[in-house]
Every structure is written in structure tokens, then in C-alpha cells.
Amino acid sequence: MTAASYSRDFYQGLLKAGRLEAREAASYRLGPGFILAYDLGPAAAWRTLVVDRNRGELLVKKSTKALLAAFINQDLPGGYPLQKKLCDLLEIKEQHVISAGHGAIFSPSSLHAPLVDLVALQQMRQLDHDQGCLALTDLAGNNRYLFETPRGYARARQQLQEAVEHNALYCALFHGLAGRVGCPACSRLGDWNLLYAPRYQQAVEAVLAEKGLSLRGLLAEIREEKRLALRQLLVEDMALPLLAVDLDYALKEVEKKFSFKI
Description:
Helix 4 packs across helix 5 (about 200-210). The protein folds into two domains: about 5-210, no CATH class; about 215-255, no CATH class. It has about 260 residues and is of the alpha+beta class. Strands 2-5-4-3-8-7-6 form a seven-stranded mixed β-sheet, with helices on one face. The chain is built from seven helices and eleven strands. Helix content is about 40%, strand content about 20%.
């Protein structure tokens, strides 16, 4: 049985012709059921076409980047600073993945491009190409989704490998806190998917051990970077009459208020 193929152009054509049968959704949050999202463009009456495992095809007013921003800023442990820190550690120059350990949201183009299509790698089992596009087949093997590759298929394939490695590193950091109990990306639970990559997992865990990196250490680095940015904003950019030493004291006192107390 040949898998049915879908693409951004396919959905844009159906929407323009008034033949798209997707349900209109007043709101949507990226979660475990998310499979993919195509940005239909600013001229479209509905900005985003979402495919969800539980809810089917949905039309959403928000852009894919707005959906992604809400997920990163409101739901993702470590938020964007940790995602960026992992990119820097792996020397990934162009960010095209957001990792969550149990899953990873990938885009063949930069996450900061004008139009961004998103796909959950844990919902896909096969990778190939079709007329220059990146083609991903879902877990059931019934649907094949095509994604434009601004820099060619070879580069998109490399970016996908970087995404798997990025997610493996995210997993490894949390393994250091909670062990490897029940991690679907590492212990081969459930269906085969593109995110399962034990060789990446072993490699990044070896790097962490060699460099002595930990989740706690990276989060401490991020907190210090925020402190320095706040100091620059208040003392240098806004020229407030504050001494740097006074600001450091104030920040430490604030941090104490949010610490666990016996």
C-alpha cells in the first residue's frame, strides 16, 4: 500500500479552493498528540494547518512560530536558554530543533525563518526525499509528509541528524538527575521512530562525562548570564545610579526568596 503524500502546497490549494475539511480550532497547544504543522502563510484566512494524533487535521489562527513560542516559554523545562546552550555545546550554528527528551520538534529551515513548518520526529519512522523535498513517513506508514528544504536535501538530512543528537543531549542531562527509567527516546519503548538513536545517546553521555557537564551546572551558567544581562541593562544601558556590587547583592537576596527553605 502506497502512503498518501501531503505538503504545504497541497493544503494551501485545498484551503484556497474551499475544499479543506480540517476542523477549525479556537486554540491549540503543542503536546504529546502533535504530529506536524504547516504554516500556510500570512495571506491565509487560517494561518496554520496542524495534524494531531488525537484530533486529526486542524486549522489554527496562530502561526507555527507562535505555537512553538508558547510551548518553549510555558511548558518546556529549561526554556529557550537551555535549548540554545545545547546548540552551542554541539556547535549547531542554525537552530532547527526544540528538544523535550521524550520528543523533538524539528524544522528543515531555521526556526527564525519567515515561514516555519514543524514536525515531531518521534511521530515519524522513515526519512527519504521527493523532488528535492524532505519526505517523512508517519509511524503507521500510511501518510508521507513533504517539507521544503531551503538548502537542499543533503543539508536537511544533516540538520535532522543534528536534531537527534540535540535531543539525545537533552535526554542525557535529565538522565543525570532521574536515571534512564522509561525514556522512549533511549530505551526503545513503543514504535520505531526517527528519534530513537542509541549511538547518539552513548556519544553525548560520554561527552558530558568527559567535560563534567550537568544540568545543574548549565542552569547555573544560564542564571549567571541573566544576571550579567540585567546588570548591563540597569547600570550601563539605563544609566541608573546603581553600583554593580549593590546590584549583585540585590540579585542574591531575590534568589534566596525563591529558594527552598527548611
